[in-house]
Design a protein that fits this description.
10 helices, two-stranded antiparallel sheet, 46% helix, three-stranded antiparallel sheet, mainly alpha, 5 strands, 193 residues, 10% strand
Length: 193
């Protein structure tokens, strides 16, 4: 996060704040790029994911009022995301004719594919050659899992309709859970005391 925050290359491509928000929320790129100020409550440290940016035949890029999973969801914001959004709000970014927080350099909707391409261009410079924009989504799921939070919490954060999707695709496996041995010892009457 420090490298992203301090990178002049990242800042020059307008990636610093949106990448920080991606890392803080686990949002999809298309959802991030559809985010509007009315979707954000900085004081309450919550944002509501209400739409996505998609490319439609004969229309080009559009902001649709639906997400991949359908409905809107509210996502808590860690302080570093609030800081990035406050910086963005108080900064002198160009005017957004599209009404979104992270527009293209011309103020229109930003293409999720172009955003991904720009991130690929700078991640090597940051020493993060294997970190895709989707990696942040996986990292949020892993931190939720490692923090002992449920798959339901993970599904709510990531916008999955089914916690099983979150578990099967995003949460890591193969951990040694010593607490299982403790439960089994307790079941047969063996105690550490």
């Amino acid at each position: 996060m420090r490298a992203i925050g301090e990178s002049k290359v990242c800042q020059g491509k307008g990636l610093r704040d949106p990448v920080i928000v991606l890392a803080a929320t686990g949002m999809r790129r298309s959802e991030l790029l559809a985010l509007r100020w009315e979707d954000v409550d900085l004081d309450g440290r919550v944002l509501t994911v209400t739409g996505s940016v998609v490319r439609l035949k004969a229309q080009g890029l559009v902001r649709q009022d639906t997400t991949k999973s359908g409905g809107a969801r509210s996502v808590p914001l860690p302080q570093f995301a609030v800081d990035a959004l406050q910086r963005r709000k108080g900064g002198r970014q160009g005017r957004s004719t599209a009404g979104v927080i992270f527009p293209s350099s011309t103020g229109t909707l930003r293409d999720p594919d172009n955003f991904g391409k720009q991130w690929r261009e700078v991640r090597e410079d940051l020493g993060l050659p294997d970190v895709s924009s989707h990696s942040f989504r996986k990292a949020v799921a892993t931190l939720i899992d490692d923090g002992g939070l449920s798959a339901r919490v993970g599904a709510d954060q990531l916008g999955h309709a089914r916690p099983s999707m979150t578990q099967d695709v995003y949460m890591s496996r193969g951990h040694v859970h010593m607490e299982v041995a403790a439960v089994l010892d307790q079941a047969v009457g063996i105690s550490d005391e």
